């Protein structure tokens, strides 16, 4: 998964999304929370399903809600 978080960061910034990306607890997953325009979220989800060239994406689980966290930017969390 090396580079996957920064792949997400780049796409999120390009799409004008806010939120965060981090490695999951097991180290084999990546968690993303993103807010923004629905079309931009759709584009991010497509990018997540493809991943960067060096990644193998087995699955993507997506959950959309109306809840907002009021993020001001998109960050990579440890």
Question: Describe it for me?
Answer:
This protein has one domain (about 5-75): Alpha-Beta Plaits (2-Layer Sandwich). It is built from 2 helices and 3 strands, in the order αββαβ. It has about 80 residues and is α+β, with helices and mostly antiparallel strands. α1 packs antiparallel against α2. The model has no long low-confidence stretch (mean pLDDT about 95). β1 and β2 form a beta hairpin. It has helices spanning about 5-15, 40-50, and strands spanning about 20-25, 30-35, 75. The two termini are about 15 Å apart. A 3-stranded mixed beta sheet has the order 2-1-3, covered by helices on one side.
Q: Output the radius of gyration.
A: 12 Å
Strand arrangement in the largest pleated sheet = 2-1-3
The CATH architecture comes to: 2-Layer Sandwich
Q: State the share of residues found in helices, binned by percent.
A: 25-40%
Uncertain segments:
none
Order of helices and strands: HEEHE
Q: How is the quaternary structure best described?
A: single chain
Major sheet characteristics: 3 strands, mixed
Average of the residue pLDDT scores: 93
Q: So how many helices? A: 2
End-to-end Cα distance, whole Å, is: 14 Å
Q: Indicate the proportion of strand residues.
A: 15-25%
Q: What is the level 1 CATH name?
A: Alpha Beta
Q: How would you describe the shape?
A: globular
Structural class: alpha+beta
């Amino acid at each position: 998964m090396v580079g996957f978080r920064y792949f997400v960061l780049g796409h999120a910034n390009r799409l004008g999304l806010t939120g965060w990306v981090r490695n999951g607890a097991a180290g084999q997953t990546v968690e993303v929370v993103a807010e923004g325009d629905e079309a931009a979220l759709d584009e991010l989800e497509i990018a997540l399903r493809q991943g960067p060239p060096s990644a193998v994406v087995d699955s993507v689980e997506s959950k959309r809600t109306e809840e907002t966290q009021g993020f001001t930017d998109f960050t990579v969390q440890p």
